[in-house]
Amino acid sequence: MSTPRVLVTQAAEATIDLLRDEHGPLMFHQSGGCCDGSSPMCFAKGEFRVGANDVWLGRIHGCDFFMSASQFAYWQHTQLTVDVVKGRGASFSLEIPLGVRFLIRSRLFTEDEEKDMAPVYAGDEYPDMQPA
């Protein structure tokens, strides 16, 4: 099995479940831009339009996870873990009304892990093989 580029904590999975019950299928995008900077943002699936300037990194708890290509250029050697903490972020992400916010924890891949990395795809070409 290839090394996943993005993981999720159990606490974040529980929050995703709450949001999915209310909003249906979900997706994540991490731009590294305005608002909370590098905070992952959760949207109803399809509410945030992704394209060739985005990279699909994989799925977390049934949700596609995208990152801007420019941000990925910096983070391509790190494994990301989506977590959740109490507190209100300054973004448009769906979890904000719950009094929590998603955040990224990261670590560098080992040399062995980098030999068998999960593939990435341009945001407009990702393999939407599994239902959300």
Q: Tell me the helix content.
A: 10-25%
Record the strand order, biggest sheet: 3-2-5-4-8
Secondary structural class: alpha/beta
Evaluate the radius of gyration: 14 Å
Quantity of strands, as a count: 8
Count, helices? 3
Run of helices and strands: EHEEEEHEEHE
Folded structure, characterized:
It is built from 3 helices and 8 strands, in the order βαββββαββαβ. With 132 residues, the chain is an alpha/beta fold. A hairpin with a 2-residue loop joins β4 and β5. The longest helix is centred in the first third of the chain and has 14 residues, at 10-23. The radius of gyration is 14 Å and the shape is globular. The relative contact order is 0.27.
Please describe the structure with a list of short key phrases separated by commas or semicolons.
132 residues, 3-stranded mixed beta sheet, 5-stranded mixed beta sheet, single chain, alpha/beta
Write the layout of secondary structure elements.
Elements (H helix, E strand, L loop, with lengths): L5 E3 L1 H14 L2 E5 L10 E4 L9 E7 L2 E6 H7 L2 E9 L13 E9 L2 H4 L6 E2 L10
Parallel strand pairs: 1-6, 2-5
Antiparallel strand pairs: 2-3, 4-5, 4-8, 6-7
Brief rundown of the structure:
The protein is built from three helices and eight strands, in the order E-H-E-E-E-E-H-E-E-H-E. The protein has helices spanning 10-23, 69-75, 111-114, and strands spanning 6-8, 26-30, 41-44, 54-60, 63-68, 78-86, 100-108, 121-122.
